[in-house]
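Note to self: the last two entries modelled the partners one at a time, which told us nothing about the interface. This time every component goes in together.
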Amino acid sequence: MTDLPTTGAKKLGLVIDLDICVGCHACAVNCKEWNDGGHSAPLTDLDPYGKDVSGVWFNRVHSFEAGDHECGRTVHFPRSCLHCETPDCVTVCPTGASYKREEDGIVLVNPDTCIGCKLCSWACPYGAREFDEADGVMKKCTLCIDRIYNETLDEIDRVPACVSTCPVSARHFGDLGDPESKVSKLVAERGGYDLMPEMGYKPVNRYLPPRTPKRQGAAALKPSEQVEAKGFLAWLDRMLSR
Amino acid sequence: MHPAISIIFFTTASGAGYGLLVLLAWGALVGHLGSQTGFGIASFVVAIGLVGAGLLSSLGHLGHPERAWRALTQWRSSWLSREGVMAILTFLPALAFAWSWVVAGEVSKLAAALTIVGALVTTVCTAMIYASLKPIRAWRNPWTVPVYLTLGFYTGALLAALLLHVYGLRGPFVTFLIAVVGLVATALKIGYWMFLDGGRSASTAETATGLGSIGKVKMLDPPHTESNYLLKEMGYRVARKHARKLRLFVLLVGFGLPILLSFLAVQGSDAVAIAGSLLAVASGGLGVVVERWLFFAEARHTVTLYYGSSTA
Ligand code: SF4
Ligand code: SF4
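The predicted structure of the combined assembly is written out below.
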């Protein structure tokens, strides 16, 4: 049923720290690698060695510049499904293939019943759904449903592929429905926010804003002041400038 | 948004088919339809044919057409599903109405009334598929449903005039209707385009990234060097100067010329009447197809905010 479930208490999702993401694309690559053999496999690449390459990715890393001049900064911005609480990508689906799980809030597509009408991808404001032309069905981030509950993996590996691979730990996985969870505390502490809240989809995933630099504006760019050398350094300076 | 030929054909053809059905059933209800077997058969073949061809064409858009029946299951939440269910349900009264009129010789008013309701509700459902999509401001607005209804009715009336003339019948009322509905359509489209040009989505690159507190957000690097599904499907956009010309084309060729031709047609002999209304159908049809193409090509999706657009 594409009716939304009465929201369960558990809301699994990601918290992405924009302050420390270095834009290395490791999460996107590991996502592609894992999911190419995972729940929604394959993540088809069309014309992979040709001129017009185009492929399915669940996670794409954009780079933005926010602010101008000395206040401006570069922010690397990974974008994937936010597993929204009230997403229209689920309710617009005519077949019931697009659904939200009651037990943990994960939004999935059933590849056996999807007719490939693409409507859900139009209904997602965030561009989190990509149509696989070769398979004729819609594909999207599964929150690595085949890792996080996978008992054949070591416990430390039971997190989404993107989280396990991030070299700077900019990605965190957990239950955002539990205010006591590590991720919820992180969000509270750092002022984690929703993307496009005006759409009313109530994303579960949160983004942590870049921290404000200690010295801002023109001051941050000034060279440190010239200090008069004293004692041994003054003697050295005299010797060297002879 | 990418203007897919299959969807443009689906929405325009089924819209015209339902418009014609509404007119026929209306004519029956007010007692204007005599026992015109030839006209009756031809009208239903055209109307049901357009609706059917439109539905078949919409299947061409699917990745898995053989699973299309599944789309009838989620009518509780999905307008696409409701559209499918209503399209199929409407065939029942429409066929009963056709039978009662053409074969049995006595129009069933109940079937005619249900045909009108079914055709109108189905057209509203088609429009709501688009009008319900929050990320697309060009679609989610109060203009979409009236435009779909009016254009369906308008193209249906153009077809009705042609059919009447082919069967040697004259319907001054239909000509009058074409003019009135054509003018309403003109006003609606101008109003819609003013709405489109007069504002922007509440979402911006700043709200999409949440980085607005730092300052203006600009794209530095896209995620990949090559294009992708999102850009091809949602990033499609017609250049503004082409859009202006095409809008004018819709108003002149889609509405102005057919109204003029319809009036000229009824002044002349039977041959002139047929030729005039045939040209009116061709011209109006082309105009409405261009209108629907623009409806997609001018629509901007919020995902483009992640790919360098500052507004959507
Ligand atoms: S991010 Fe898009 S695909 Fe994911 S749940 Fe939200 S609306 Fe649906
Ligand atoms: S593409 Fe598949 S999952 Fe998406 S709305 Fe259509 S049937 Fe549902």
